Backbone:
């Protein structure tokens, strides 16, 4: 594959097909399917793909529209840009596709003399053709496609989009035909990918789950809802260590998987992300600390005595909602501000984990604490021994989860501990992996050619060679990802669309008809709302101001004061962990419910306030010189 540096590949095609501009074939039938390919005339893989595309066009006829866009990788394939401009020059005489086909049909190497010969065979005006190759128009067209591809994060050729969605499947005929014909399973997968590509999809699912819980808890089916959440489900004897309600399983069991992702995110940010550089990391670290201390103080200003135990409820930031809102605001929010908020949320997660472990433990059981130590030592040993198989870690983590639960510590913290010990591997060199994969595929290709030449009826997929090649390809593919990366990729969709919504559904279902006249109920709700809406942004802004003024941290150069304030307000959106804090802080349901209502109201107000502040700035307004509160 021809590689080129780029950003994360986009899920969706950034620029829709424009039949007035794009080079397109077919698509005259009703409801056609489209294949957009960013390609390079010298890329060997693009040259092979043309046979598959030809078979697809033959099979689908006018139902398929094929669009070619340029992505010449001049660094890997010197002369590729010249050939792209030659195709455009032929297009200026109405012969783009003829030149396109001949360039791909010509054996490599391809020289200027070959191009001139092709142009002569096509009957082009050679003088005009020579002028057009060097013309600004041809260069601009190729450069436009190339810049568009790079902005989409395309890193190599061929890059394929099927009906506007990036195609990551196999490049063989039958795999691509299935993607184009779209049977029921493929249609479902497509719709899921489209929804998941939306910036706020995870936050939307979480919001719908919370709304469903509120509806259930405040409707005639409320008894059934409570029966579901409070029904007991145990492993082992009734009343034993693992005899929990459904709500507790969601809270301690499913959230352990979510906290695993939190731990992996923390580790990545501290090694290669925004927290790896000391000067860049100080501002979000200090801001996060201020964003925890200030809302806690705001809550305690209104609550004394027994109600003070809920001080941690307004301190947590929900990263799914916050980053989702920032994504919806689009270009109004700079990339550096998104990175700042993401890093702040990571530090906020660390502080939330410490809060749960230190301030909200249940009655400690020393025997279970000893078992926790043993499980952690096993994880440490597996890491030191460089064990890359998943199963031993899963068994040790399950034992750790049981020990934490038995010790009186929130068992979901097992996920964070596992993340700390999952082994990482040095980034592999591409050369040996390429050689391994190419050797396996070349062997299969040669066997296929030999079978066709001898008119053999044997099936290659039943030969030992096929098994050997598949194992080689699997080994090369697996080496690209560390165990931590593989687990994160496998778990992240489940956490975003299943685990967190289930927890929100079990934790948010509070009755709005609660007795707010209970002692301290109103001040608890007011304290939570005040902490999220006022305390959180004030703490972030004040801590940032002090850090920058004392030169402890550097400001964000491309972020003006208004947007920084808006982002600080958005950090007051606290849902998942804040609801967990409410359950851990209050033993009585009435106060836990009041705190949760405060979380929902405060989060809604913080989201509206933050988005409103950012949107209030005129699009294209000049960035203020005061990039952050301290400048």
Residues:
């Amino acid at each position: 594959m021809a590689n080129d540096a780029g950003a994360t590949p986009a899920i969706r095609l950034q620029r829709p097909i424009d039949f007035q501009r794009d080079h397109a074939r077919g698509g005259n039938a009703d409801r056609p399917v489209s294949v957009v390919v960013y390609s390079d005339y010298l890329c060997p893989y693009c040259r092979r793909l043309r046979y598959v595309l030809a078979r697809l066009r033959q099979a689908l006829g006018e139902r398929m529209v094929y669009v070619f866009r340029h992505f010449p990788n001049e660094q890997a394939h010197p002369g590729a840009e010249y050939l792209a401009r030659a195709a455009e020059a032929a297009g200026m005489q109405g012969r783009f596709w003829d030149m396109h086909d001949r360039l791909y049909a010509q054996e490599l190497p391809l020289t200027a003399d070959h191009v001139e010969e092709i142009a002569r065979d096509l009957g082009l005006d050679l003088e005009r053709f020579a002028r057009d190759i060097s013309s600004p128009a041809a260069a601009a067209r190729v450069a436009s496609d190339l810049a568009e591809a790079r902005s989409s994060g395309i890193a190599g050729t061929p890059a394929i989009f099927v009906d506007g969605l990036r195609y990551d499947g196999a490049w063989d005929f039958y795999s691509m035909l299935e993607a184009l014909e779209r049977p029921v399973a493929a249609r479902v997968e497509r719709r899921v990918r489209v929804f998941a590509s939306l910036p706020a999809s995870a936050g939307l699912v979480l919001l719908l789950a919370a709304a469903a819980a509120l509806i259930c808890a405040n409707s005639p089916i409320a008894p059934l809802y409570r029966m579901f959440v409070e029904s007991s489900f145990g492993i082992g004897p009734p009343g034993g260590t693992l005899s929990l309600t459904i709500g507790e399983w969601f809270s301690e069991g499913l959230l352990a998987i979510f906290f695993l992702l939190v731990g992996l995110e923390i580790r990545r940010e501290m090694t290669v992300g925004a927290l790896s550089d000391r000067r860049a990391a100080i501002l979000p670290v200090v801001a996060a600390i201020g964003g925890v201390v200030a809302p806690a103080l705001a809550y305690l200003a209104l609550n004394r005595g027994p109600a003070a135990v809920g001080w941690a409820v307004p301190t947590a930031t929900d990263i799914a909602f916050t980053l989702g809102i920032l994504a919806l605001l689009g270009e109004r929010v700079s990339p550096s501000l998104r990175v700042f908020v993401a890093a702040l949320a990571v530090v906020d997660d660390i502080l939330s984990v410490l809060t749960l472990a230190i301030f909200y433990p249940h009655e400690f059981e020393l025997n279970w604490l000893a078992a926790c130590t043993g499980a952690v030592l096993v994880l440490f040993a597996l890491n030191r021994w460089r064990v890359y198989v998943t199963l031993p870690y899963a068994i040790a983590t399950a034992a750790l989860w049981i020990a934490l639960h038995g010790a009186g510590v929130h068992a979901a913290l097992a996920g964070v501990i596992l993340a700390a010990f999952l082994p990482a591997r040095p980034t592999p060199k591409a050369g040996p992996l390429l050689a391994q994969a190419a050797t396996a595929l070349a062997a299969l290709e040669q066997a296929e050619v030999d079978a066709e030449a001898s008119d053999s009826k044997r099936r290659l997929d039943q030969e030992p060679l096929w098994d050997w090649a598949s194992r080689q390809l699997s080994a090369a593919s697996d080496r690209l990802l560390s165990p931590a990366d593989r687990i994160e990729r496998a778990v992240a969709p489940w956490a975003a669309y299943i685990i967190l919504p289930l927890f929100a559904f079990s934790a948010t279902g509070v009755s709005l008809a609660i007795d707010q006249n209970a002692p301290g109920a109103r001040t608890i709700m007011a304290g939570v709302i005040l902490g999220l809406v006022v305390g959180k942004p004030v703490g972030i802004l004040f801590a940032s101001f002090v850090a920058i003024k004392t030169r402890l941290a550097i400001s964000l150069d491309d972020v003006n004061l208004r947007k920084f304030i808006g982002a600080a307000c958005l950090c007051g959106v606290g849902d998942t962990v804040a609801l967990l804090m409410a359950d851990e802080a209050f033993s009585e349901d009435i106060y836990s419910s009041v705190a949760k209502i405060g979380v929902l109201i405060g989060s809604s107000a913080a989201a509206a306030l933050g988005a409103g502040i950012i949107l209030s700035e005129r699009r294209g307004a000049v960035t203020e010189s005061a990039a952050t509160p301290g400048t």
User: Anything to note?
Assistant: Confidence is low (pLDDT under 50) at residues 1-7, 620-626. Residues 521-549 form the longest helix (29 residues). The first strand starts at residue 2 and ends at 3.
